[in-house]
Write a structure and sequence with these properties.
The complex is a heterodimer of chains A (433) and B (422). Chain A is α+β, with helices and mostly antiparallel strands and 433 residues long. Chain A contains 15 helices and 15 strands. Helix content of chain A is 41%, strand content 22%. Helices cover 41% and strands 23% of the residues of chain B. Chain B has helices at 39-51, 62-71, 108-121, 133-145, 151-163, 177-181, 185-198, 214-223, 269-280, 286-294, 323-338, 344-360, 365-378, 388-392, 396-404, and strands spanning 6-11, 14-20, 26-36, 77-84, 87-97, 125-126, 129-130, 200-207, 245-250, 256-263, 298-306, 311-318, 407-415. The radius of gyration of chain B is 23 Å and the shape is globular. Classes of the chains: A alpha+beta (433), B alpha+beta (422).
Amino acid sequence: MSKINNKRIVKNTRLGGEYIEIDHATGLKIKLFPMPGYSSAFALFGTKYGSVDVTFKTANDQDFITVPNGIAHYLEHKLFESEECDAFSLFAKTGANCNAFTSFDATAYLFGCSQKFEENLEILLKFVQEPYFTDENVAKEQGIIGQEIRMYDDDPGWRVFFNGLQGIFHSNPVRIDIAGTVQSIAEINKDLLYRCYNTFYNPRNMVLSIAGNFDPDTVVDLCDKLVKEAPDLKLETIIPEEPDDVKEKYVSQKLEVAMPLASLGFKINGVSDSESPKLYVLYNMLMETLLGHTSSFYTDAVKSRLISESNYRVGVFNARGAFVLTAEFEADDPKKVRDELIKTLEAAKLNGIPEAEWNNVRKQTYGEFVKQFGSVQSVALAMLEAAFKDGGAFDLAETAADATIGQMTELLGRINTDYATLSVIEPIDKPTD
Amino acid sequence: MDNNLQRTRLADGIHFNSFTDDRYKVNRVSVAFMTKQSNDTAAAYALLANILTKKNATFPNEKDFHNYEASLYASEIHGEAGCLGDVSLLDFSVSSISDKFALEGEPISEQAAGLLLDCILRPAFQNGVFTDIETEKQNQIRIIEAELNDKQEYAHNKGIELLCPNEPFSVNTNGTIDTVNALTPSTLLSAYKELLSHARIEIICVGRDSFSHLLPIFQKEFDSLTRGDIDPCVTTASPIAQTVNEVTDIMSVVQGKMVIGLKTDYKNKAATSLMNKIYGGMVTSKLFLNVREKLSLCYYCWSRYNRYKDTFTVDCGVEKENIGKARAEILKQLDDMRSGDFADTDIEVALMALRNDTNTVNDSAATLAAWYTDRIYRGDVIAPAEALAEYEAVTREQIVEAANAVKLSAVYVLSGEEGEKE
């Protein structure tokens, strides 16, 4: 008999699609979106465990413990290895592409294939559930991860963003690089890895999300066979309390760049985990309307050469306990751009949001979501991300389609332009500001 | 999947190609201009890719233009100046959602295709020339200056310049600061007119809905062009040199980059592709498993094969004290390929990966359009699945021959300030 506790079909008439949600007896959430006509399938096996989850407690612990930064990412690297071989080699034999990623609040292992789906899924389910850490293989990984950290140290786009997070947040762990630091990863050993693995890689904390060309019954059969039972650990994680204001209003670093690269972040406080997906869509629309490529601000700023046309984008950064509106740009005078961006937001509070332009952005945002549902990767990822926040894969598209100007006005009022950090990467040969 | 690309000649050197499949949510239309690549025209083409995609005669104001794109449900007009071997590929495209998904029943696809045609054929002229040229030139110069921000790509391009000096393939498709500065309204206009009259033009439509209604529209629009001699669009293999070009640049970087350039004159391109896969083209390749995994010398280390130019590049990110060791190991792995030191399972794995890649091409309108652009240029229009046969016919001996034909030709190093510590 199948180990299914609950099974639902989630339909969306506007987008013309449907997927299956299964609550597995092991606690694993399974999301299956068969896409007829497609040649490939894309599967993600993920855990709600990211770089911010460094302080946690289970029913077996007396108190909360704090582990070194970068351990979730380290674990991701190490899980690819088993006692006999690594997962890359196993997937190579089936021709599948495989990979993994660690974000601030999730880790996922994935494959894409157009053949041997069942074999690939079996490999994925097995290697993620069979950790193999030794003192030797853990020590060896420090070299590779150290090089990865140093590679990003030279990346101005990455540095400007992370320096910005360090300026915005006082204590939220998003201010630490996902991979940790060369110093923090030196503290990682096999016992810590096993402890984190056994805490967070529990099926109750995990999601399996698959889209494309595959048979849902095959997935359920394999999960019944391979997903291991685990006790409910009553897992609790803590994100440290964060003051409303930003830690520093201006941060800068010098790197090999031709012109200053900047990131301005507005800290939005009080956004709960459950409301964050909806606000993510709505704030993106607001930022695009007032400051994006369709706005008067952008056209005027490019024309007056206040900003460079390339590498300008506005958006929203969202992780557990962190919600930031962002504008990234290249400019000779980043502080002047910051002042103009703030002035534009404050003017909109007084004068209102241009409704016709906003409606165009609403259609644009909805159109982008429709496009997303034409890609097996995007669909699987959308289901995974939604599941970690107890939402549905169609929710974001529906939020965009049904958005109102009233919602925009309310959200604009929540922006405190005083809670802003400007992060700048300056060229090495230029004098500091 | 059968090859059901519909191909229709519209005029001399102009074809309309379409492929419909209801798996897609979008309809994608692209117009590709193919012509000889050169230092003289690269800056102009790069500027055209930008200037033609932000306004036109109907929407001369950029803000109105972008708002119209947004109102068509994210039907953004995209322009890109790239290359296929020695040939410049200036590609304009729009990807719009199928009308079926419009919130208010708008005919999005036809309007989006109309917007693309307006951009290409009816630019925003003032007094018969392009407007705001000086601002566009400054934008382009900033793009060129920003190349430095991505050290990996920067080093790769430097490696190509060293590998294929003075060949059209090594021309920077962004142009150079000097060639951008030299552009005038009249030279830009001439470059635009030259394209319309002499370039080979391929219109490629891939998407959910039938494109039959667009064919007469494109026929009418392109019929009105005055066409001259059509550019033959020839690429030649890069000649093998007797010496190795070596350059080291010093910059303030934490991690160095090395690009090793190689050339071949082996004629069996399928065997050479498989050789590249086994050598450095996949995560179980010799370079990945040995240089990165076993010896931890580089965070990334992979090879790319360009079948048009018969060139390879091995790119790696490496600490400055390991540059010498990494170079030696990368070349040792090539020697191992030459002496046949790889397993039959490596060939099977490479074939499986190629099968997977080609089977997946159809799942995105953009990747299928790129596939057909490439195959049309080669003059060998086949569906992705049909391309596998030539790889499956490759023997182990041919892979060894392919490896033995490879010659070291260039080494570019971007290093930190202290230089290499041996």
